[in-house]
Amino acid sequence: MKGGIFILSGAGLSAESGLKTFRAADGLWEDHRVEDVATPEAFARDPHMVQSFYNTRREQAANAVPNPAHRALARLQAEYGAPVYLVTQNVDDLLERGGAREVIHMHGALKNALCASCGHRWAAPMVMDVKDPCPSCSAPATRPDIVWFGEIPYHMEAIQDALEDCELFVSIGTSGVVYPAAGFSQMARQLGIRTMELNLEASGGRFDEIREGPASTVVPDWVDKVLAN
Known about the structure:
Structural class: alpha/beta
Radius of gyration: 18 Å
Number of helices: 9
Strand order of the largest sheet: 5-4-1-9-10-11
CATH class of the largest domain: Alpha Beta
Order of helices and strands: EHEEHHHHEHEEEEHEHEEH
């Protein structure tokens, strides 16, 4: 009986859908310093700017279309015959719109809102404002349900359980040398799990196999080979 596949995806998976990768070579994230838009301190300092930044990202994600890599992973999950765990660092919902049934969003999701006061979550409107009242406690403390720098990623226990249930770890469109990707691939090696990287170019991480190229090409090709076997 074959074991499961654990897939960790990052910004490179959605880049060909028109969503920019997390941080450009100049150290900026869509023309903003990360410290100004992706930390609890930034939200406390200028919540309106942070909300505006994520409102723009939410609109961009809503207008994006799943690419062949998203659809290929959904097909793998549907047809493989063993668990395929899709764990993503991305905050878009392109995997789901590409047909994936279950996706673990370790960094949250643009489509969700979070009350900074009571922790209640709800479906986010396209345009959010910090003064929007929480549906649960009515506090005007609405923030994006996004994991910022300095915060703990979501679902870490479930992610570890999923990894331990697999025979193959695959990193797609994310660095293999920056945590958590580095930690997951390291854990996989310690567990004797084969590791693979599919990326535009090799990240420098330690993998048993590396395939380079655009996600919309290398991911469907790999999925075809897996399902053919």
